[in-house]
Design brief:
The protein is globular. The longest helix has 19 residues, at 121-139. The strands form five sheets. Strands 4, 5, 7, 10, 13 and 14 form a six-stranded antiparallel β-sheet that branches. A two-stranded antiparallel sheet has the order 1-2. Helix content is 15%, strand content 30%. The chain has 183 residues and is of the alpha+beta class.
């Protein structure tokens, strides 16, 4: 027998005797893609790095000064994540997979897969940005697939133009979501 949950509602201070019974479980999370573009307060546009859509039921977002995303360059030079602190944040061991258009082949496979064990959100962001930097250095030594030329690391995308906005859990691994500043 399916578990039933009872919901009731009240409006304008009146009590209501009506209730809704739910005999089916809530729908499972769907795979969603983040917005294609973000417009920053200074008017700069950041474009989402194309990657397969992931489940957003387990997402850790990152903010700086109340705006979505943190600059990879700022984090690598010692900057802090300036979002609200989370007490008792413990991510545990996380398997991370980097996805970047044009760099899916075995030459950079070792740099695309990492495991980290952060205790704070700052440690998580720092580990992700450090790993992205290593991936960037490995991938920038080889040309990307032709159809991904506009996302070529070093020649078209500089490390300083990359923002980390969130990380999403799907199919047993975590996938960072990146945006690139375009002027």
């Amino acid at each position: 027998m399916a578990h039933q949950k009872r919901y009731s509602s009240q409006s304008s201070g009146e009590s209501s005797s009506s209730s809704i019974e739910r005999s089916t479980p809530p729908p499972s999370p769907t795979k969603q893609c983040s917005a294609e573009r973000l417009t920053l307060p200074n008017g700069t546009t950041a474009h989402r790095v194309p990657a397969p859509c992931h489940s957003h039921d387990r997402t850790i977002p990152f903010y700086a000064n109340g705006n979505p995303g943190v600059s990879v360059r700022n984090v690598l030079s010692g900057g802090h994540v300036q979002d609200s602190p989370e007490r008792d944040f413990k991510a545990g061991s996380l398997k991370i997979v980097f996805q970047w258009p044009g760099y899916d082949f075995s030459d950079v496979l070792h740099a695309r897969h990492i495991t980290i064990n952060p205790n704070t959100k700052q440690e998580l962001v720092t580990a992700l940005c450090t790993a992205l930097h290593k991936f960037y250095l490995s991938a920038s030594k080889i040309p990307p697939s032709v159809e991904s030329g506009s996302w070529a690391l070093c020649s078209r995308v500089r490390l300083g133009d990359i923002m980390l906005t969130s990380i999403h859990f799907d199919a047993g691994v975590w996938f960072p979501q990146f945006y690139v500043l375009r002027k």
